[in-house]
Amino acid sequence: xxxxxxxxxxxxxxxxxxxxxxxxxxxxxxxxxxxxxxxxxxxxxxxxxxxxxxxxxxxxxxxxxxxxxxxxxxxxxxxxxxxxxxxxxxxxxxxxxxxxxxxxxxxxxxxxxxxxxxxxxxxxxxxxxxxxxxxxxxxxxxxxxxxxxxxxxxxxxxxxxxxxxxxxxxxxxxx
Length: 175
Fold this sequence. Notes:
The protein has five helices and six strands. The protein is α/β, with parallel strands linked by helices. The chain has two domains: 4-70, Methylated DNA-protein cysteine methyltransferase domain (Double Stranded RNA Binding Domain), CATH 3.30.160; 87-167, Winged helix-like DNA-binding domain superfamily/Winged helix DNA-binding domain (Arc Repressor Mutant, subunit A), CATH 1.10.10.
């Protein structure tokens, strides 16, 4: 017998960084894939495509909030998330979600923030497996020397996201 979390929904949206595939279950958004991902999403036939008419789904919420983000009207996301990962990955992803809009940190900083300063490579690997890019802002983690290193959507998309956040006007966007 299937449980609600066995039912996977998906849809796509256009964005300034290309087409995004959104995937969710009843518990929340599970993943976002870029159009030219290094590990592209293969949609199984049993997944259900949702449309804009399904306004209460995590996918519809994500679509709306991502649209606001790209329009410069949203700096934080507030929607149910359900990433699947190891306890260590979940710990790293939770810390990623705490990086403020427009701020970058290094992999070493991220490792220190989770109390594992020597685990930079493991933190980098967990960062690279983040299933919710943009919303869980792995693009805000850069090399210690300021270099833009690996990103599932490609370094150019990482640069575009960081430039987008730097260009946003100051002020209260949450009012």
